[in-house]
Amino acid sequence: MFHELASHNDDLARLLDAGYAVAIDSNYLVVRDIPYLDERGTLQWGAIVTTLVFVDQHRVTQDDHQVWFAGGHPHRLDGQPIPNLGGGPTTLTLSAACKDVVVQRRFSNKPTPTGHFTDFFAKIESYVTILSGPAIERHNANPNTYRLVAEDTSESVFRFRDTLTSRAEITDLSRKFNDEVIAIIGLGGTGSYLLDYLTKTPVREIRGFDRDHYNVHNAYRSPGRLTPEELGTPKATILQARYEQFRTGITLHAKHIDATCSEDLAGVTFAFVCVDKGSARAGIFDLLMTLGIPFIDVGMGLHRKNDTLHGMLRATYYAPTNAHHMLERGLAELTDAPDDEYHITIQTAELNALNASLAVIRYKQLRGFYAQDTPVTHLLFGISDLHLVTER
Prior knowledge:
By secondary structure, the protein is of the alpha+beta class.
């Protein structure tokens, strides 16, 4: 991977030509074999880590003048800590390919007089001079080892690099989704927003199911564009073409899911149920509970009172261990309710988006991405008072 980037970035190629032990891991540039002195003057070896900001698929630039360092604080020849490094103790989680690189601190040393580095080569050279100078002088240590090192070879599901994740230093949290296979049953208003959010989450696979066709009213309560050529085409076809440009692992099917569709959900680790008919929901619930798949069911109940719409949004979690108990409580409609205002009021995109947001946030809590003080099984959001009620 590094050699590929080096062919498009002269500063990275210069690092390679100079003999640095360079690699790429989780959108970070990792430079191993950096010698330094500890407080006793003993030769130690560390690694420099810095963020890669991708301009496009092949070109990178810097985030700032700072770096991370795997190792203790480097010392001078007189045994005193090297000054003016700023930063301080911190940690950064890399992939298993970099398990030998244990980040312990961050350094911040601005070059003078500009205050910024011209490129990665200048940045690494500057820090190596500062950190390794005493070790080079005392032990004749050489940071230019020409060593080939292992890289993170896992393929991303995204067709464009997620640079904000590395810049926010949450790459390790995002890995919690790597083995997830998500089913979205129903790609209407809320389901289409769920698809949009989950497309940008690094789950391994997304399967969507909806037999209906894409019509004008769908465009009014779902994200994205509307082109006349799309009207009358199955939703699954339209959304597949739209989102497969962003990532791999998306398969959308123009079919309904019922109790007979166990093969379609083989390997699914979590499901979202986004249907507006209680009778359809009943069959889907039965299938998911039989297969032991945890799921969140979303719902929206709207009614007109005088000149305004009232109602609630719902997101209910059914874990395999208590799904039957939750079902018995009757929190979700399992029969078809007549005269549901939702079917005739198409200007509810903001409610669909909010309903999807509540469901995705709860799912990410379950997977340990977001914190949860107390597990929540049932969420209700009142439209008239903007009040969120949760059952724990």
